């Protein structure tokens, strides 16, 4: 599978001041696969160890931080080839299970900078937060991996040549109808299949949603098992309640996260630790409100008012019991959730492109779905689940604030026009992954 993060890994390898790398990401998003592929394609060899499968290897890090001894013991105990700095990639998977292995990265950075070493783990983000003082601050590089984006999904599909076709067209011209039709069809499939590599693989092999759903159920069960195995026991109930409430929260007209929907009379302080755990695990994304949309947006956010989206739209559809029939028939009873599912898709696409997302609200009169910051500019983004492109809140925003450029995404394609002084692109949802091309 072609993953965009490979470019980041290659860039890391060529950095002059390269440090050991920590790769975070949710379970089953493809970390192990891409690291092994990276080792095969860009090194003479790679050595892969998994600290969950082999506790004996994890124990190697408990003795001392002598880097030469550590490498020798890994080779001897695992019966793997010698690890040669400058030629071998060392991959330490599930590194969060051995905190001293994370600490050891500091000594690899200081004593053996020529060695390429990567630590990865499905709950590594949680471990980093919990380790605190023992984490090698300033001695590691970090990357986060997400489920497959829509572009990566397209590259696996029978329509993979669409990506090349789209990029060949001038962005100021509408796409031909036959290309847009293919894109929209794959977009609908993506909302149900999502970006978990195993689910994507099965979908393009069988095109059987029942088989995809079975894989999704196993992934969801795996996440819930992680709650009981790795979370603080006093937070377990709250974690489960928050996790299961997400589809219901998103189905509401006002999909602001409301604590009482999780547990009656619950307040922020009751649930904030559990929400933080889910964020660190990469399972949810929090989008905070901005009242005053100025640069930097992070300075003006209201951290007490936010929405929560899931890391993968396919898993969200499955947890909500949302079906292909629900998507295609556009029944009014599912309209609220369909809109939020579309927002979840756009949010995940923006995150995969490296943006931090916010939303804007003006009292109870107007709400803009997303704001991002790009090259010192605030970029407003409105999202519509259907072909309707009327965007009252977007119009209010661009009239009130002077923006250079903005976007309205729907199932329609209108192209470029002016909203006051703002150049507005009205584009299909299947084009969100190209937003950086338009911003250039």
Q: Can you describe what's shown?
A:
The protein is of the alpha/beta class and 440 residues long. The chain is 46% helix and 19% strand. It is built from 19 helices and 13 strands. It has helices at residues 5-14, 31-42, 55-59, 67-78, 99-111, 124-131, 150-156, 161-168, 177-193, 197-206, 209-230, 236-251, 259-262, 268-280, 313-320, 324-329, 335-352, 392-400, 435-439; strands spanning 21-25, 45-50, 88-93, 116-121, 141-145, 284-290, 301-310, 358-362, 366-374, 377-383, 405-410, 415-419, 422-428. It has an eight-stranded mixed beta sheet with strand order 7-6-8-9-10-11-13-12, sandwiched between helices. The protein has a five-stranded parallel beta sheet with strand order 2-3-4-1-5, sandwiched between helices. Strand 3, helix 5 (99-111) and strand 4 form a beta-alpha-beta unit. Helix 10 (197-206) runs antiparallel to helix 11 (209-230) and helix 12 (236-251) crosses helix 17. The longest helix has 22 residues, at 209-230. The radius of gyration is 23 Å and the shape is globular.
Question: How many strand elements?
Answer: 13
Distance between the termini: 28 Å
Described by the principal axes of the CA atoms, the overall outline is globular
Q: Round the Cα radius of gyration to an integer and report it.
A: 23 Å
Rounded average pLDDT: 90
What is the strand arrangement across the widest sheet?
7-6-8-9-10-11-13-12
Strand content: 15-25%
Helix content: 40-55%
Extract low-pLDDT stretches: none
Quick take:
The protein is an alpha/beta fold and 440 residues long.
């Amino acid at each position: 599978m072609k993953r965009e993060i490979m470019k980041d890994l290659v860039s890391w390898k060529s950095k002059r001041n390269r440090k050991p790398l920590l790769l975070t990401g949710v379970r089953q998003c493809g970390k192990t696969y891409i690291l092994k592929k990276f080792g095969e394609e860009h090194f003479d060899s790679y050595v892969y160890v998994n600290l969950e499968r082999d506790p004996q290897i994890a124990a190697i890090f408990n003795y001392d931080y002598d880097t030469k001894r550590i490498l020798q013991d890994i080779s001897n105990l695992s019966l793997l080839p010698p690890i040669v700095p400058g030629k071998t990639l060392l991959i330490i998977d599930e590194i969060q299970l051995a905190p001293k292995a994370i600490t050891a990265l500091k000594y690899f950075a200081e004593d053996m900078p020529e060695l390429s070493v990567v630590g990865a783990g499905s709950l590594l983000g949680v471990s980093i937060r919990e380790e605190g003082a023992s984490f090698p601050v300033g001695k590691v590089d970090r990357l986060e991996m997400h489920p497959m984006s829509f572009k990566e999904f397209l590259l696996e599909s029978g329509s993979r040549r669409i990506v090349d076709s789209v990029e060949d067209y001038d962005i100021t011209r509408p796409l031909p109808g036959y290309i847009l039709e293919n894109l929209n069809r794959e977009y609908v499939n993506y909302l149900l299949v999502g970006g978990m590599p195993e689910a994507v693989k099965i979908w393009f092999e069988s095109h059987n949603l029942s088989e995809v759903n079975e894989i999704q159920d196993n992934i969801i069960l795996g996440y819930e098992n992680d709650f009981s195995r790795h979370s603080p026991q006093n937070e377990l109930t709250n974690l489960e309640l928050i996790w299961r409430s997400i589809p219901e929260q998103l189905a509401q007209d006002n999909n602001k996260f409301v604590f009482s929907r999780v547990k009656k009379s619950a307040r922020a302080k009751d649930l904030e630790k559990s929400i933080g755990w889910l964020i660190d695990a990469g399972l949810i994304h929090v989008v905070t409100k901005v009242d005053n949309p100025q640069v930097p947006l992070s300075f003006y956010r209201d951290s007490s008012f936010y929405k929560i989206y899931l890391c993968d739209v396919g898993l969200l559809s499955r947890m909500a019991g949302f079906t292909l029939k629900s998507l295609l028939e556009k029944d009014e009873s599912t309209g609220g959730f369909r809109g939020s599912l579309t927002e979840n898709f756009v949010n995940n696409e923006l995150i995969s492109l490296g943006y931090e997302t916010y939303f804007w609200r003006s009292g109870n009169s107007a709400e803009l779905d997303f704001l991002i910051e790009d090259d010192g500019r605030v970029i407003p983004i409105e999202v519509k689940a259907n072909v309707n492109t009327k965007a009252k809140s977007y119009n209010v925003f661009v009239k009130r604030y002077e923006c250079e450029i903005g976007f309205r995404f729907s199932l329609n394609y209108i192209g470029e026009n002016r909203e006051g002084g703002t150049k507005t692109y009205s584009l299909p949802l299947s084009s969100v992954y190209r937003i950086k091309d338009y911003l250039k």
